[in-house]
Write a structure and sequence with these properties.
By secondary structure, this protein is mainly α. Helices cover 43% and strands 5% of the residues. The protein is globular. The two termini are 22 Å apart.
């Protein structure tokens, strides 16, 4: 699968496109684990098949089964619904937050590598990503919830090449 949401080939993504995608997905995951938590928790029925929490670039989230045939893109943690009733709620939420952070990082850097970003540009992406608190830090309340991040403010920078 070489195409993403907007029909843009992964190999042509810029650092700013990757970062906007990261911020949108991150915002969706934060929403699922904070403001939409009750709705999310109810959907995590342990009686359902394996479920994954996906953050979407448009700052929404969805809980769904993983694809039967794994595609080349990194996937979120599988089976988060099974642990819901088997561990303390706070630990379960922290577990999901940590795995969501890991998925976001791996997804962003997978795209960066496929797009052919050089080491210096990947380091810049890493620094951009690390300028925001992790989902785990927000969910565990070790940092305050950030103000709404503008995922479209970088649009003029898309034309810059890595």
């Amino acid at each position: 699968m070489d195409r993403k949401g907007k029909g843009q080939a992964i190999t042509s993504w810029t650092i700013h496109m990757i970062f906007r995608d990261f911020l949108g997905k991150r915002a969706g995951l934060i929403k699922a684990l904070t403001t939409d938590y009750e709705k999310f928790r109810q959907q995590c029925d342990p009686q359902k098949p394996y479920m994954c929490l996906y953050g979407c670039p448009d700052e929404t989230w969805e809980l769904k089964e993983p694809p039967d045939v794994p595609h080349e893109l990194p996937e979120p943690n599988i089976g988060i619904n099974f642990a819901r009733d088997g561990m303390p709620e706070k630990e379960w939420l922290a577990h999901i937050a940590i795995h969501s952070d890991a998925w976001l990082y791996s997804y962003a850097f997978y795209i960066a590598i496929r797009a052919g970003l050089d080491a210096e540009t990947r380091q810049q992406l890493f620094n951009m990503i690390n300028s925001s608190p992790t989902i785990y830090e927000i969910v565990s309340k070790t940092v305050k919830m950030p103000a709404k991040e503008d995922t479209s403010s970088e649009s003029n920078k898309d034309k810059s090449s890595s």
